[in-house]
Amino acid sequence: MKTPKAESPIDRHASLVQSLGLAIAEGSLAPNSVVRLDELEAQHKVSRSVVREASRVLSSKGMLASRRRFGTVVQPEHEWNLYDPQVIRWRLASSRRLEQLQALNELRGAIEPQAARLAAERASWDAGSDLVHLAARLWAAGQRGDQVEFLRLDVEFHAAVLKASGNAMFSQLHNLVAEVLTGRAEHGLMPHLPDHEALQLHVDVASAIQRGEGGAAHAAMSRIVQQFAEEVGHIWSEHHPDPAQDSSRQPGKPDDAPQRPPSDSRSRRGTAKANP
Question: How many other β-carbons are positioned within 10 Å of the β-carbon of residue 272?
Answer without folding.
Answer: 14
